Amino acid sequence: MSQTETLAGSLDTGVNMTTHRTDETMAPRQDPPRTSGGGNAQLTVLAGPTAVGKGTVAAEIRERFPDIWISVSATTRKPRHNEVHGVHYLFVSDEEFDRMIADGELLEWAVVHKAARYGTPKQPVLDKLAEGRPALLEIDLQGARQVRETMPKAQFVFLAPPSWDELVRRLVGRGTETAEERERRLETATLELAAEKEFDVTIVNASVREAADQLVKLIRSPHIPGKS
Ligand code: 5GP
């Protein structure tokens, strides 16, 4: 079984944080080569269940901490009314997404909620890390697992809801999905919650501002058990 270690007291932020020593569930972290392009900056991957607020926390960081670069994903999903191409996503056709895969342009990609494809363009991530700029990916669990294979030295942060009921409330409250889509997302969320132990650190998203502060602390000073 994984050991867990609670850091809430030592980090003094009011956000519940737990680190996981996942000896059985994660690949060894001792000696994989860094594939970041040679810079000293750290890549942080934020994942968590649907509607937990990953996008909101990322938006808060974009707003308040502009030195932290946040990857813009490509997706085949249609834009929502307030979304801007190139800011929230690169909205691409199925054909363009196929081309990006074929040309090896994506660091990872996945079909999310059985509905659309999402992927992280690779080159911008490598460029930012080589520049020494901290980089954040806000992606789903399948994508996080792929990045763990290709960039094992990245820091993997799980954003958790305060409770299941709160997660359902947030999903219903958002009002952007149909009932059928909501069902599908809750199914996915059940599986996603079970994956928490695969991550280096958990942040409980009780307050967006505090969760963002906590994540920024980790981005600037990674906390990966077993590594300095
Ligand atoms: P939404 O459609 O609500 O913007 O996002 C749906 C899900 O797709 C979220 O869980 C989000 O984290 C995930 N997602 C966004 N960008 C990427 C990406 O580049 N790769 C992967 N694997 N998932 C992504």
UniProtKB/TrEMBL annotation:
<dbReference type="GO" id="GO:0004385">
    <property type="term" value="F:GMP kinase activity"/>
</dbReference>
<dbReference type="InterPro" id="IPR020590">
    <property type="entry name" value="Guanylate_kinase_CS"/>
</dbReference>
<comment type="similarity">
    <text>Belongs to the guanylate kinase family.</text>
</comment>
<dbReference type="InterPro" id="IPR027417">
    <property type="entry name" value="P-loop_NTPase"/>
</dbReference>
<keyword id="KW-0418">Kinase</keyword>
<feature type="binding site">
    <location>
        <begin position="48"/>
        <end position="55"/>
    </location>
    <ligand>
        <name>ATP</name>
    </ligand>
</feature>
<keyword id="KW-0067">ATP-binding</keyword>
<dbReference type="Pfam" id="PF00625">
    <property type="entry name" value="Guanylate_kin"/>
</dbReference>
<dbReference type="InterPro" id="IPR008144">
    <property type="entry name" value="Guanylate_kin-like_dom"/>
</dbReference>
<dbReference type="InterPro" id="IPR017665">
    <property type="entry name" value="Guanylate_kinase"/>
</dbReference>
<keyword id="KW-0963">Cytoplasm</keyword>
<keyword id="KW-0547">Nucleotide-binding</keyword>
<feature type="compositionally biased region" description="Polar residues">
    <location>
        <begin position="1"/>
        <end position="19"/>
    </location>
</feature>
<keyword id="KW-0808">Transferase</keyword>
<comment type="function">
    <text>Essential for recycling GMP and indirectly, cGMP.</text>
</comment>
<protein>
    <recommendedName>
        <fullName>Guanylate kinase</fullName>
        <ecNumber>2.7.4.8</ecNumber>
    </recommendedName>
</protein>
<dbReference type="InterPro" id="IPR008145">
    <property type="entry name" value="GK/Ca_channel_bsu"/>
</dbReference>
<feature type="domain" description="Guanylate kinase-like">
    <location>
        <begin position="41"/>
        <end position="220"/>
    </location>
</feature>
<dbReference type="GO" id="GO:0005524">
    <property type="term" value="F:ATP binding"/>
</dbReference>
<dbReference type="GO" id="GO:0005829">
    <property type="term" value="C:cytosol"/>
</dbReference>
<feature type="region of interest" description="Disordered">
    <location>
        <begin position="1"/>
        <end position="41"/>
    </location>
</feature>
